[in-house]
Specification:
mainly alpha, single chain, two-stranded antiparallel ribbon, 217 residues, elongated
Length: 217
């Protein structure tokens, strides 16, 4: 892939990744008192996070559409970079794509599901099998021994998911930076070898010229 198109594809990857890190950073003031303090979490911290998540989930449909377009933009960047890939693309972009997909999975399975639970207020549901959720005796099912996740634990899981997603996205940025550094060093090495070869060629040409002059005399 040409260097110009590769730079544009990298731009398509870095922008969505940085955008999502910014979104997660905006959630950090709500996650910090729940996950990162040694003192017991106050009820006000859970209420603040819950209210913020309710606002996010109740946002107009345009907001999630923009979010999904940004996700697709990142995938498009990986598609461009992995089309006829070089060894560097396979190593760095392949690993970056794996991390990016892990981030999407965390978003779909943990964050989206958690937002729906927070919005509905159905904390403490008991999930027996995938797709079968009951709420105590209301469903007519014996749920003895089957415990659901309460409100505070559900919010802690959401906060932990934000942290996991942030670490995954930082990994994408680190891999892209590593690829840039490796390709930069490779270009410098190629230029150095080209200069050495050109200097050797000039030296050999000068030697031949001196030999020819001596033959004339």
């Amino acid at each position: 892939m040409a260097w110009g198109s590769q730079s544009f594809a990298t731009f398509l990857i870095l922008c969505p990744t940085s955008f999502f890190l910014g979104v997660l950073f905006s959630l950090f003031p709500y996650d910090y008192p729940i996950l990162w303090t040694a003192a017991p979490s106050l009820p006000e911290a859970f209420t603040a996070l819950e209210n913020h998540l309710l606002t996010l989930h109740a946002s107009p449909p345009l907001i999630p559409r923009i979010l999904h377009i940004v996700v697709a933009t990142g995938l498009l960047g990986f598609l461009f970079k992995l089309y006829k890939p070089s060894e560097s693309n396979m190593l760095f972009d392949g690993a970056s794509l794996v991390l990016y997909m892990i981030g999407i999975i965390v978003y779909v399975t943990n964050i989206v599901k958690g937002l729906r639970v927070v919005s509905s207020g159905d904390y403490g549901q008991a999930e027996l099998v995938e797709g079968e959720v009951v709420m105590g005796a209301e469903a007519g099912v014996d749920t003895e021994g089957v415990k659901g996740i309460g409100r505070e634990d559900s919010l802690r899981v959401l906060s932990a998911s934000h942290t996991i997603l942030a670490l995954v996205l930082v990994g994408v940025l680190v891999l892209q930076a590593g690829q840039w550094y490796a390709e930069r060093k490779e270009r410098q090495e190629v230029e150095r070898m080209s200069k050495e070869k050109a200097e050797k060629g000039k030296g050999a040409a000068g030697t031949r010229a001196q030999v020819e002059k001596k033959k004339k005399f």
